[in-house]
Amino acid sequence: MTGSFRELKVYQLSFQAAREIRLISMKFPKEETYSLTDQIRRSSHSVCVNIGEGYRKRVYPKHFSSKMTDADGEATETSIWLDFALDCEYMDQQSYNALQEKYNEIGRMLNAMAQHPEKFTPKK
């Protein structure tokens, strides 16, 4: 098993998606600064943070599963904020589709991790 959460594919994918969201959201209107912009950035960052926190506590399977579930919830929240950004025409359809595809994959991976924490428990 990997030594660092940074080596996990799900972490790398979620970090990449959060970076893309930051770049896209820099173009959002100023009036969205304290609503949509902050919210979408916060939730996309929280996916990564929950993965890291959960992985560090993977010796406790229930805690690990809980954190992966939290990360999945944040990924879903981010997906919904993307819906709003598209609806408000703050992003193009191609960027939206690519990010939604990433968050769907992230969600599948996090769900599998939450369902099978034993695969991530350090070997003694």
CATH architecture designation: Up-down Bundle
Beta strand %? under 5%
Order of helices and strands: HHHH
**Class computed from helices, strands and strand pairing:** mainly alpha
CA distance, first residue to last residue: 12 Å
Oligomerization: single chain
Mean pLDDT: 96
Q: Shape, please?
A: elongated
- Structurally, the number of domains stands at 1
CATH class call = Mainly Alpha
Major beta sheet summary:
none
User: What's the name of the CATH homologous superfamily?
Assistant: 23S rRNA-intervening sequence
Poorly predicted runs are none
Describe the structure.
With 124 residues, the protein is mainly alpha-helical. The protein has one domain (5-119): de novo design (two linked rop proteins) (Up-down Bundle). It has 4 helices and no strands. It has helices spanning 9-25, 33-56, 61-87, 93-115. Helix 2 packs antiparallel against helix 3. The radius of gyration is 15 Å and the shape is elongated. The termini are close together. The mean pLDDT is 96.
Quick synopsis:
The protein has a single domain (5-119), classed as Up-down Bundle (de novo design (two linked rop proteins)), CATH 1.20.1440. 73% of the residues lie in helices and 0% in strands.
